[in-house]
Specification:
2 copies of one chain form a homodimer. By secondary structure, the first copy, chain A, is mainly alpha-helical. Chain A has 2 domains: 17-79, Winged helix-like DNA-binding domain superfamily/Winged helix DNA-binding domain (Arc Repressor Mutant, subunit A, Orthogonal Bundle); 84-230, Four Helix Bundle (Hemerythrin (Met), subunit A) (Up-down Bundle), CATH 1.20.120.530. Chain A is 71% helix and 3% strand. In chain A, helix 1 (17-30) crosses helix 3 (53-65). Chain A binds a DNA duplex (30 and 30 nucleotides) through helix 3.
Chain lengths: 231, 231
DNA sequence: CCGCATATTATGGGATACCATAATATCACT
DNA sequence: AGTGATATTATGGTATCCCATAATATGCGG
């Protein structure tokens, strides 16, 4: 059969308007094109996105369930503010979830995955060296995605992805921290080493340490901000 | 002051129609008033819920983001089916999240929380004895809610709550299993004991074991079903 | 000029009616 | 029987309504 290799399916990427609007809005919020706490007036968003109010409302509801938008009684949606305490909780959750993904990878011990992770880590180091912080962030996301998807942890990846969006501003701050360009990659290397060794417990630990470390940096930065404000 | 104790606030539970519809729909799906995979025709739901299509659409979108509804290209929403593999992942996630909540409780070691947990566990035992399975489920949910909320893990509780909805049918099956009426409460007692002793690691382990056990039972039941179908 | 009551406006919550299109079902013809 | 044309159903999406309420502006009496 000529079609046995390539299943010849006619795929259609045709996303709905709603999905496009959702991505645009999520992107806008995550990249802070709105101030935290800013009101999101439905009719204004209709103009800005060029879609009807129906769509805007569906999108806002969706983002609410992701925690990026908060809807207050009779006042409508605003950009959700993530408190330091919530950020702490989010880092804690990421710590254990990334831990189990890393552990699962270690147990599988797939050389292809190890190679992929090493390629991505090289990209991260290069991005740090070139001081391209956006590239650091996206490559780091790739690193974790690889961990999750290759161990079949799709549900967990969905959760991590969703909650990480709420602390994106902290992520971009932590990677700018002095020495993080060495510490971060070093910790990720440990994850890879543990996977290569097939050591599940060590992989869990290494992934957990990496997140816990980022959490500590973020907490320090927030405390500093708080201090500066009180001054 | 006569009003000092009871702050005399005129609270308004005034939920929006949308929220009411959302709860009704979620309830209907979780309690399997729809078959898995069944199409959810918007206009029909309008009639059944007595609300406009606007609301129904927002609700369906919301439930999609919770994973209870799946929306397929140009065919509209259907009741999402949770595969055995997804169920496995969900149990794994619950295992670690309930673990960290239990651990946090153990570190706090609050006698009031311990007392509360023991009250709830007594209710669970009573419900098992009376063979009131719905009461077992709701009390078990209370047990875990107590663990999460009293350790301030609100974000994690939200996640657990949401993913647990997707395996509700398995939950009601596992608690019917022979011996689960003894094993389950015994494992929960271990969690309480560890908290009482302030032993974080033991509390994590006990909570994790409880969930892992439920997962194993569910997996066995699913395998059995599969076998029966193939017969 | 201040305090209060009263418009006014902005906006959300919700409902309808409508259109275009895709998927499906029906049917008629050869 | 199988092909093609047609009708039906339902989604994706839009445009407007209406009403209730929160915030703001306005105005008036002292």
């Amino acid at each position: 059969m000529s079609a046995s290799e390539q299943p010849m399916r006619v795929l259609r990427p045709e996303k709905t308007l709603r999905e496009l609007a959702l991505e645009k809005m999520r992107d806008a919020i995550v990249n802070m094109h709105f101030r935290a706490g800013e009101r999101l007036v439905e009719r204004d968003l209709c103009d800005q996105l060029g879609v009807s109010r129906t769509i805007v409302r569906e999108v806002l509801r969706h983002l609410e369930s992701e925690g990026l938008v908060a809807i207050q009684q009779n006042r409508g949606p605003i950009v959700a503010e993530t408190t330091p305490e919530e950020a702490r909780q989010i880092y804690e959750i990421r710590g254990v979830l990334e831990g189990i993904a890393a552990k699962a990878c270690a147990i599988q011990k797939d050389p292809a995955v190890v190679a992929e992770l090493e390629r991505i880590l090289a990209r991260i180091r290069a991005a740090y060296a070139a001081n391209e912080l956006a590239a650091v962030l996206s490559a780091t996301t790739d690193f974790y995605r690889t961990l999750f998807e290759n161990s079949g942890r799709h549900v967990a990846w969905g959760i991590v992805n969703s909650i990480t969006a709420r602390i994106n501003h902290l992520r971009s701050m932590t990677i700018k921290t002095p020495d993080r360009d060495k510490q971060g990659p070093a910790q990720m290397q440990k994850i890879i080493d543990a996977i290569k060794a097939g050591d599940g417990a060590a992989a869990y630990e290494a992934a957990n340490v990496h997140v816990t470390n980022a959490a500590a940096i973020a907490e320090a930065l927030l405390a500093e901000q708080q201090g500066a404000k009180a001054r």
